[in-house]
Amino acid sequence: MRLIIIGAVAAGTSAAAKARRNDENAEIIIYDKDSYISYSGCGMPYYIGGEVEEAQKLTPRDPAFFKSKYNADIFIRHEVLSIDHKNKTLDIKNMSTGEIFQDHYDKLVIAAGAAAVIPPVKGADRKNVFTLRNIGDMNQIKDFINEYAPKSAVIVGTGFIGLEVCENLKELGIDVTLIERLPWVTPGLDGDMAVYVEDHLRKSGVKLYTGISVAEIKEDKVILEDQRQVQADFVLLSTGVRPNTELAAKAGIELGVTGAIKVNEKMMTNVKDVYSCGDCSEQFHVVTGKPVYRPMGSTANKTGRIAGDAVTGGNLSFRGILGTGIFKVFDMTAAMTGLSEKEAKKEGYHVEVCHNIKPNKPEYMGGREMVIKGIADKDTGRLLGVQIVGFEGVDKRIDVFVTAITYKAHVEDLFHLDLAYAPPFSTTKDPVMYTGMILNNAINSDRKLITSDELEELINSGKDCQLIDARAASQYEQDHIETAVSIPHARLRDTLDKLDKDTITVTYCNKGVTGNAAQNILLNHGFKEVYNLSGGHKNYRKSRKS
Q1: 462 CB contacts (<8 Å, ≥6 apart)?
Q2: Do the beta carbons of residue 415 and residue 430 sit within 8 Å?
């Protein structure tokens, strides 16, 4: 069998490695138009910032390595111009010599990756404007910084790469401004969680403009659509990627609803003996079963392995993704998996949401707060998605939630997980377990939650409601929700006769625990409809900024 792979980064090289493990006799040839292969794209921001000192550490493997270890021939700076799937041939251009020649295959894997999206902005072609998609881009940015010593930078877009570059530029002493056309940073997070990231960015000295687009890029400034000007010695466009599908589409290979190459669970396209994997191919969502496009290095490696297995007669099948992501910005970590609240509602789920604010370990061991947003289906109790913002232990918790959602866990199951506990690592009841407890109470008992948005709607509706601030009086005096009355938890039982049991009642404290205790008292004394404010006053104040 002669296997040809188009693309030699994460997916393509993973496909080659798996194919070789399965079949020692296969001929394996990879064509890539770039000069660098099998590189760590996710590490590029850290080379720009100097945390990774040598670029070679991000490109440890070259064609000679793959020839030696896998007996695979990789031809760099070779562009595949066309695919003739009827005759199983490819037209290929040697970019170094200009020669065009033809090759043939028995099986073909398209792992052509994705390209940076460049918005239609005047001045986007200036020499001080960059994208960061490959090692060549990285080297150009690094060379520009070394040569011109810029003092200010604008980053357009606030996805993972944009925020990671932001942190690394600040480490170099460069003044950074972020511009995001959406209402909040980090499109993968809901607004009530993104606000925590925004606050941390501002505290770290980063300027933010949200809900606005760039109109023009000039030599030393960026002009916003409202004509405000932002100083910028150089600009990074971090506005997403699009799958490289032109070659496939021209050959009659079907694209999916997301615009990426449509594949089945074996990475097969609609054309016999043609497969696709990595950032150019479409995936499907574990929760909804619907097509999605979420290009990630981890998914590229996984789908590449499955493609390599499939072309050699293996049994591996793709099981979908959750859109899991994690990033660090300064010392804060944000992570997400599954459906966001917005996505869950769009899919028609009857959504329950909780905001759980807990330390990652006891405070006496240096624990720091994390905010966990859980999204569940009220009708079934199934966990749909989770978002976490914190400083330590976020990665550990998000991976537990990933596993739970993958295996269709219900919120009540989280409490029963036998998670590792010792004070240096966790609280006795881990924040994961608390999230399950809170959601389970809200769904399966009368301990209902109300989000900040829902509380605002209730207050503005004109309905009769009584809002109880169960914190200490001193906290109430410092700041409180406008219509709330101060009844500290310790005095609540003594003031029950002053409250109307038939009126909608909302309790809150600082983070939610004491508010829940006050809610229990009221329910146990016959109050009909009592809600606890999700995430308490702290989350309410944050979310009002979103």
Answers
A1: none
A2: no
Average pLDDT over residues 260-272: 98
Integer Cα distance of 187 and 63 in angstroms: 37
Give the active site residue among 42, 166, 354, 465.
Answer: 42
- Can you give the length of the chain in residues? 546
3-state secondary structure of 458: helix
Determine whether 429 is exposed, middle or buried from the number of CB atoms within 10 Å of its CB (0-12, 13-18, 19+). Answer: middle
- The CA distance from 240 to 351, in Å, is 29
Q: What percent of the chain has pLDDT over 90?
A: 96
- Between CA 437 and CA 376 the distance in angstroms is 12
Q: Is 236 helix (H, G, I), strand (E, B) or coil?
A: strand
Please list, in sequence order, all residues whose beta carbon lies within 8 angstroms of the beta carbon of residue 64, skipping any fewer than 6 positions away: none
What is the spatial order of strands in the sheet that 214-217 belongs to?
A: 214-217, 221-224, 229-231
Decide: 310 and 320 in contact? Cβ < 8 Å: no
Dihedral class, residue 71 (left if φ above 0, else alpha if ψ from -120 to 50, else beta): left
pLDDT, tens digit (0-9, with 9 covering 90-100), for 493-532: 999 999 999 999 999 999 999 999 999 999 999 999 999 9
Q: What pLDDT digit, counting tens, does each position of 219-264 carry?
A: 899 999 999 999 999 999 999 999 999 999 999 999 999 999 999 9
Domains of the chain from N-terminus onward: 2-113+242-310 (3.50.50.60), 129-239 (3.50.50.60), 333-438 (3.30.390.30), 448-543 (3.40.250.10)
Catalytic site includes residue 509: no
Does the reported pTM lie above 0.90?
yes
188, two tokens: 């993968």
How many angstroms separate the Cα of 91 from the Cα of each of 79, 146, 248, 269? 9, 40, 13, 20
Decide if 469 contacts 486 (C-beta within 8 A). yes
Q: Do the beta carbons of residue 538 and residue 511 sit within 8 Å?
A: yes
